[in-house]
Specification:
The complex is a heterodimer of chains A (377) and B (326). By secondary structure, chain A is α/β, with parallel strands linked by helices. In chain A, the strands form two sheets. In chain A, strands 1-2-3-7-6 form a five-stranded parallel beta sheet. A two-stranded antiparallel sheet of chain A has the order 4-5. In chain A, strand 6, helix 10 and strand 7 form a beta-alpha-beta unit. In chain A, helix 2 packs antiparallel against helix 12. Chain B has two domains: 183 residues, Thiamin diphosphate (ThDP)-binding fold, Pyr/PP domains (Rossmann fold, 3-Layer(aba) Sandwich), CATH 3.40.50.970; 128 residues, 3-Layer(aba) Sandwich (Rossmann fold). Chain B has twelve helices and 14 strands. In chain B, strand 2, helix 2 and strand 3 form a beta-alpha-beta unit. The longest helix of chain B is centred in the C-terminal third of the chain and has 16 residues. Chain B is globular. Chain B starts with a strand and ends with a helix. The chains are: A alpha/beta (377), B alpha/beta (326). At the A-B interface, helix 6, helix 7, helix 14 and helix 15 of A face helix 3, helix 4 and helix 5 of B. Chain B: This is Pyruvate dehydrogenase E1 component subunit beta. Chain B: One of its GO terms (molecular function) is oxidoreductase activity. Chain B: Keywords: Oxidoreductase, Pyruvate, Thiamine pyrophosphate.
Chain lengths: 377, 326
């Protein structure tokens, strides 16, 4: 019996809210609840979310979209440094995190500032990080998150290890890592997923398949029909979800988290989406590797437009609320950028202090000599 | 006190720390049921069970990466990389991830991870099993590198490593696993990381070594005394990073001559760093240029040739005499 048949039977026996997850089969059908017109698909049902929760989720997606546009402008003005645009991926980042708890642990990559901010990472710190100032990655004590990962898939084994820790202690916690389609070619992706599988780790591996690893399309990245199907090889749950459908992303992540908390092992989620902007603001030009037609096709699938239509159909959203949210985040950003511009960039001495828990003598000496040299200069 | 081999002392260190602290876990390839390919973890699985001792999948990067996850969530993992020659497989997880997490997070996180690594030559392994790749991590800020040369130090240093708040690479000289025995207290005790040991005092020349090269340096000292009446001081570094400059420099100021001995290739090795430090701190005390007696700048040789490739008392003596005859 192949795994998918087995999975199908398991789902039929259990009470599954979303039977579509099984139809992944060869990965040709994506799990979707909300179609591009903002309507619930036949045979599907909306996740169990209150009106306020739905509104909050959309408000956060809008916040992130607005943040992204403004951050790009700040970058062009030279007021921000390294920045990886995330527009187009708001449903992936927000609806997934909305399905988790503050006590869960987040392992983001550099493009996942949406997940980070939703989980409590302050705007101010996103700016410090971008500007290369000290303590940009000093995650506040009450935010359960690793600093954003730069090495592609380097954090996947960390997420496996953390999820393994929760399983060993039977803790009601989940570790989630975010990475892109390119990361699935890395050895650490394989090693992390395999470790998590072997130890039934409370881990969720959330792949935002935005179609490109910088300029290289998915077709050159792998020969698998889907990324989700790689889960079969690891013997773990896998699902391909419409990454521009907030409800489907929420539902898939919620199910994965519920399973993890019960000790039923990790899940690989492939969220199919598209990065509207360039890879980063450091000179990437998507025009060199994407067509205008393709970009338009994905604009038509905009995760915000679809979700807003759904909320409007339920009478939950209007232009006034839209403006209020945008204004709020823009104000927050204005305050934050002004504040960080006045904050110190940091010193070598401070960096030395954080390299080890206790500074070794040679490093202490380097520090003292440097400080003395600066003073005497 | 009990008489123990070096490998038994290592085993004992893990046992007492696992008894003392339930967060200490051991993991790696074959370390569970089988007790490790060298039996370093023998009996730990049987004593502490499958939630403290893990046979992991065969994946070095996964072992270290998952250990980082465990370590940041409150565990104190002791991971084994089966042979130092395999360490490149997990270089990123060690030097980029574990080593930098405290730095990157402004001190929010630290990684109390011990990585045990059997290393070094003289035991006729197949290729890529006998490398001495410790200098790579001397050049990796954020990790510490420790190398014991006798059972007492092995237990005390490993306990220090396990209790350390930062990642510690613990290099175990395979050659000495069962060839040296010594008195080892049965209870827990620590030998501090970052403190070298003067194993033999002398006034003419300082021999600086670590791991399996310490007994080799002692043999050379004996030979040099017999041949030319040389009184050599022998320093066992015990820690490669951070280096104990106080002991090194103090000794060189006294003797005026130094020979650094290691198995690893010469260029860019631990010896190069030590020579630079001596030049910075004690150049006016030197009577002769510092000599390095090391492996050659080749990959580790096939086993039939290893005894010729590795430093010997003869080659070390030649180095000593060069400093005397300068």
């Amino acid at each position: 019996m192949n795994y998918w048949n087995f999975y199908l039977i398991k789902l039929k026996r259990g009470v599954s809210v979303v039977p579509k997850t099984m139809e992944l089969k060869q990965g040709t059908e994506m799990f979707q609840i909300l179609n591009e017109n903002g309507e619930i698909n036949d045979g599907q049902q909306a996740p169990d979310l209150s009106d306020d929760e739905l509104k909050d989720m959309y408000a956060w997606m809008l916040k992130i979209r607005t943040f992204d546009g403004r951050a790009i402008k700040l970058n062009r003005q030279g007021r921000l440094g390294f920045y990886a645009p995330m527009a187009g991926q708001e449903a992936c980042q927000i609806a997934s995190m909305a399905a988790l708890k503050k006590s869960d642990w987040l392992f983001p990559s550099y493009r996942d500032m949406g997940t980070a901010m939703y989980h409590g990472f302050p705007v101010e710190q996103v700016f410090l990080y971008s500007r290369g100032q000290i303590n940009g990655m000093k995650v506040p004590e009450d935010v359960n998150m690793f600093p954003p990962q730069i090495i592609i898939a380097g954090h996947v084994p960390h997420c496996a290890g953390a999820g393994w820790a929760y399983r060993l202690r039977d803790e009601d916690k989940v570790a989630i890592s975010f990475f892109g389609d390119g990361a699935t070619s890395e050895g650490d992706f394989h090693e992390g997923l395999n470790f998590a599988a072997v130890y039934d780790a409370n881990s969720i591996f959330f792949c935002q398949n935005n179609q490109y690893a910088i300029s290289v399309p998915l077709s050159k990245q792998m020969r698998s029909e889907t990324i989700a199907q790689k889960a079969i090889a690891y013997g773990i749950h896998g699902i391909q979800v419409d990454g521009n459908d907030a409800l489907a992303v929420y539902q898939a992540t919620k199910e994965a988290a519920d399973r993890a908390r019960k000790g039923e092992g990790p899940t690989l989620i492939e969220a199919v989406t598209y990065r509207f902007g360039p890879h980063t603001m450091a000179g990437d030009d998507p025009g060199r590797y994407r067509t205008k037609e393709e970009e338009q096709e994905w604009t038509n699938k905009d995760p915000l437009v679809r979700f807003r239509k759904y909320l409007e159909s339920k009478g939950l959203w209007n232009d006034e609320e839209e403006e209020r949210v945008k204004e709020e985040i823009l104000n927050e950003m204005n305050e934050a950028i002004k504040k960080v511009e006045k904050m110190p960039k940091g010193t070598v001495e401070e960096l030395i202090d954080d390299t080890y828990t206790n500074i070794p003598p040679i490093l202490q000496k380097q520090k003292e000599e440097y400080v003395r040299w600066k003073e005497e200069k | 006190m009990a008489t123990m081999t070096l490998i038994k002392a290592i085993n004992d260190a893990m046992r007492v720390e696992m008894e003392r602290d339930e967060n200490v876990v051991v993991l790696g390839e074959d370390v569970g049921v089988n007790g490790g390919v060298f039996r370093a973890t023998e009996g730990l699985y049987q004593t502490f069970g499958e939630k403290r001792s893990f046979d992991t999948p065969l994946a070095e990067s996964g072992i270290i990466g998952a250990s980082i996850g465990l370590a940041t969530m409150g565990f104190k993992p002791v991971a084994e990389i089966q042979f130092a020659g395999f360490i490149y497989e997990c270089m990123d997880q060690i030097s980029t991830q574990a080593a930098r997490l405290s730095f990157r997070s402004g001190g929010r996180f630290n990684v109390p991870l011990t990585i045990r690594i059997p290393y070094g030559g003289g035991v006729k392994t197949p290729e890529m099993h006998s490398d001495s790749l410790e200098a790579l991590f001397l050049h990796s800020p954020g990790v510490k590198v420790v190398v014991p040369s006798n059972p007492y130090d092995a237990k005390g240093l490993l306990i220090s490593a396990i209790r350390d708040e930062d990642p510690v690479m613990f290099y175990e000289p395979m050659k000495l696993y069962r060839s040296v025995k010594g008195e080892v207290p049965e209870e827990a005790y620590t030998v501090p990381i970052g403190k070298a040991n003067v194993v033999q005092e002398g006034s003419d020349v300082t021999l600086i070594a670590y791991g399996a090269m310490v007994p080799m340096a002692q043999k050379a000292a004996e030979k040099a005394e017999k041949e030319r009446g040389v009184k050599a001081e022998v320093i066992d570094l015990r820690t490669i990073s951070p280096l104990d400059l106080e002991t090194i420099i103090g000794s060189v100021e006294k003797t005026g001559r130094a020979v650094v001995i290691h198995e690893a290739a010469q260029t860019g090795g631990v010896g190069a760093e030590i020579v630079a430090r001596i030049n910075e701190e004690a150049i006016l005390s030197l009577e002769a240029p510092v000599q390095r007696v090391t492996g050659f700048d080749t990959p580790y040789p096939p086993s039939a040739i290893e005894d010729e490739w590795l430093p010997t008392p003869e080659r070390i003596c030649a180095g000593i005499y060069k400093t005397l005859d300068f």
